[in-house]
Design a protein that fits this description.
CATH superfamily of the largest domain in chain A: Rieske [2Fe-2S] iron-sulphur domain
CATH superfamily of the largest domain in chain B: Cytochrome Bc1 Complex, Chain C
Oligomer: heterodimer
CATH topology of the largest domain in chain B: Cytochrome Bc1 Complex, Chain C
Number of strands of chain A: 9
Strand order of the largest sheet of chain B: 1-2
Number of domains of chain A: 2
Strand content of chain A: 15-25%
Order of helices and strands of chain B: HHEHHHHHHHEHHHHHHHH
Largest interface: A-B, 26 and 33 residues
Shape of chain B: globular
Strand content of chain B: under 5%
Radius of gyration of chain A: 26 Å
Helix content of chain B: 55-70%
CATH architecture of the largest domain in chain B: Up-down Bundle
CATH class of the largest domain in chain B: Mainly Alpha
Strand order of the largest sheet of chain A: 1-9-8
Structural class of chain B: mainly alpha
Largest sheet of chain B: 2 strands, antiparallel
CATH architecture of the largest domain in chain A: 3-layer Sandwich
CATH class of the largest domain in chain A: Mainly Beta
Number of helices of chain A: 3
Shape of chain A: elongated
Distance between the termini of chain B: 20 Å
Helix content of chain A: 25-40%
Number of domains of chain B: 2
Order of helices and strands of chain A: HHEEEHEEEEEE
Chain lengths: 176, 415
């Protein structure tokens, strides 16, 4: 009967080997079907833009599109910079000093999407509501952001995100 | 039920030939003609038939709408308006589909509460109940995807807010969200895949409805007394009795349905969805369709993003385990005097959450949302298990026949 036992062991091995092989094959075949949903080459091709800052005056803000998202660019006034720099970060939900958020103090570049559930905060034009901290206010669920785009009040968990950007000249930035 | 032997007799040569090869007529005959059904079902039991009607109506109108709809970010909104204004009967067909979604949910919620009240989730009907909850979950996803296709402001921002819920997941949330979007924000690729899946899901629902009915036909229908069928006098054949009863209620339901379609087709919608999607401007108040409001209220009741999402998902997931949370051996709430007020308070809670879901989550509204959200979960997790153990239920009738005919019916039952 020992030969039968040997056979059984061999058969088990063949079963496990065939099963594993099929499982790996199925997973390999599944991956393209899953990955095709990720951002495609055309979406990635739009990954960076250049913005000319020279027409923006002090106290003014513009909105540009980057990767389908609104980017807030604001030339801050001396007052706004002072508020942003002097604010006490210890009580903030997402503590960050202004120097870590603006490469040059007068220029603030932010992704204009509320970090709560993705609405567009108000505060870009001068007539808008700016919230309790002089920056932006999200009307969906009432998040208040300060002049550095930091969350100060409301349900949003984090500050308005700063996109990756670099100054390519004094009046031009590249976002992305 | 499943163990009754088939009484189908093929009437001619062809059906005899077919019956020996594919007994499909026998299956239909046994399931929908002679099928023994409790004799005491009330009108709340007609909503299964009404829901079948709703599903078929949605699929037919949906297939027709897909002939005119263009699933592209630049053209979707215009193609819907084209359907409404230019296509023959297009407005009627679209309004039937849009109102149909609301009617479908109204019927589904009544069906669900009927199951809750009469304990239709209890042994041996747990599988029927679980399939029902899966169907509800798929209905929610399907309706949400369908609403997005209009590509109006409310569509766009609903997709934005709901897909952003996934960003609450630590570490992988961002990646999952971009995978769903097919980009870095909601856009054309998102719309395209939502359309593809919106077309697919109703057919998955139809298949699950098949399993739901199959499981139902194995153990048989529950009934208002909660006493199981014991003898032949407890039942009547499905045809003609329940075919007529269900058919009558489908017609009554269609009257209400038609009233909305013809007289108030936009009453249940939101005016902001007549503005084309604009990714640079959020509407001042984002409100979901009425049938999602209770869940939306639960989401917003909790001031933390991640826990808000968890609570909203849990509000549906908890339904799966009700068969094991309810410790009572008595099915019908009507026989459970201690449990009954808690049940009705739960019904009121669902309506209250629906009301609060449309209000800004501030001040007293927020507080009320939190209280009702708390009760929603307390009802299932604490009240259901505890009351089942401590209450003394009312006396049950010996049989369905006795419940219908009084004690005199017993002789009939024993014959």
């Amino acid at each position: 009967m020992s030969s039968d036992h040997n056979d059984e062991g061999r058969r088990d091995f063949l079963m496990v080997a065939a099963g594993s092989f099929a499982a790996v094959g199925a997973a390999g075949a599944l991956w393209p079907l899953v990955d095709q949903m990720n951002p495609d080459a055309s979406a990635k091709a739009l990954a960076s833009i250049e913005v000319d800052l020279s027409p923006i005056k002090e106290g003014q803000a513009v909105t540009v599109m980057w990767r389908g998202k609104p980017i807030f660019i604001r030339k801050r006034t001396a007052d706004e910079i002072k508020q942003a720099v002097s604010a006490d970060t210890t009580d903030m939900r997402d503590p960050q000093v202004d120097g870590d958020r603006a490469k040059k103090p007068e220029w603030l570049v932010l992704i204009g999407i509320c970090t709560h559930l993705g609405c567009i905060p108000r505060g870009q034009s001068t007539g808008d509501v700016h919230g309790d901290f002089g920056g932006w206010f999200c009307p969906c669920h009432g998040s208040h952001y300060d002049t550095s785009g930091r969350i100060r009040k409301g349900p949003a968990p984090t500050n308005l995100e700063v996109p990756p950007y670099a100054f390519i000249s004094d009046t031009k930035i590249k976002i992305g | 039920m499943s163990d009754h032997s088939s009484s189908y007799v093929p009437s001619n040569g062809f059906t005899r030939w077919l019956d020996e090869r594919l007994p499909i007529i026998r299956l239909m005959y046994d399931s929908f003609i002679v099928f023994p059904t409790p004799r005491n079902l009330n009108y709340l039991w007609t909503f299964g038939g009404i829901l079948t009607f709703c599903l078929v109506a949605q699929i037919i109108t949906g297939i027709v709408i897909a002939m005119h709809f263009v699933p592209h970010g630049d053209h979707a909104f215009a193609s819907v308006e084209h359907l409404m204004r230019d296509v023959n009967w297009g407005d009627l067909i679209r309004y039937t589909h849009a109102v149909g979604a609301s009617m479908f949910f109204a019927a589904a919620y009544i069906h669900l509460f009927r199951g809750l009240y009469y304990g239709s989730y209890k042994s041996p009907r747990e599988i029927i109940w679980i399939f029902g909850v899966v169907i509800l979950l798929l209905m929610i996803i399907t309706a949400f995807m369908g609403y997005s296709l209009v590509w109006g402001q409310m569509s766009f921002w609903a997709v934005t807010v709901i897909t952003n819920l996934f960003t609450a997941i630590p570490i992988v949330g961002e990646g999952i969200t971009q995978w769903i979007w097919g980009g870095y924000s909601v856009g054309d690729p998102t719309l395209n895949r939502l359309f593809s899946l919106h077309y697919l899901f109703p057919f998955i629902i139809a298949a699950l409805v098949g399993l739901h009915i199959w499981a139902l036909h194995v153990v048989g229908s529950n009934n208002p007394t909660g006493v199981e069928v014991k003898s032949k006098t407890d039942t009547i054949p499905f045809f003609p009795f329940y075919v007529i009863k269900d058919g009558f209620m489908v017609v009554v339901f269609m009257l209400l349905f038609s009233w909305f379609v013809f007289y108030a087709p936009n009453y249940l919608g939101h005016s902001d969805n007549f503005i084309e999607a604009n990714p640079l401007q959020t509407p001042p108040h984002i409100v979901p369709e009425w049938y999602f409001l209770p869940f939306y209220a639960i989401l917003r009741a909790i001031p933390d993003k991640l826990f808000g999402v968890i609570a909203m998902v849990a509000a549906i997931v908890v339904l799966f385990v009700i068969p094991w949370l309810d410790t009572s051996k008595i099915k019908s709430v009507s026989k459970r005097p201690l449990f009954m007020p808690f049940f009705w308070l739960f019904v009121i809670t669902c309506f209250a959450l629906g009301y609060l879901g449309a209000k800004a989550p501030e001040g007293y509204f927020l507080l009320a949302s939190q209280l009702f959200t708390a009760y929603y979960f307390i009802f299932f997790i604490i009240i259901m298990p505890v009351i089942g153990l401590i209450e003394t239920p009312r006396k049950l009738p010996d049989s369905i026949t006795e419940a219908v005919e009084g004690k005199s019916g017993k002789e009939g039952a024993s014959s």
